[in-house]
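Q&A log
Question type: sequence-to-structure
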Amino acid sequence: MFDELGLDVITRNQRNHFLEMIEERYMLTSTIITSQLSLDQLYAVFGDSTSADAICDRLFHNVYKLELEGNL
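Response status: OK
Response body:
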């Protein structure tokens, strides 16, 4: 589970590690990601367009998106 993805700036090293983790899990098991950002906004979080394409392609393929609204 990745909690609050996009909350902090992602460095190049973190982005590479994240891509490796997503690659290992892709099409093998489920991954839960929470974020306050929309899918479009998440793309920008990864910075480098090549890495962002690779990560988002794997994250958004066969995705179940739940948008929650309400007051705390």
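Response note: The mean pLDDT is 86.
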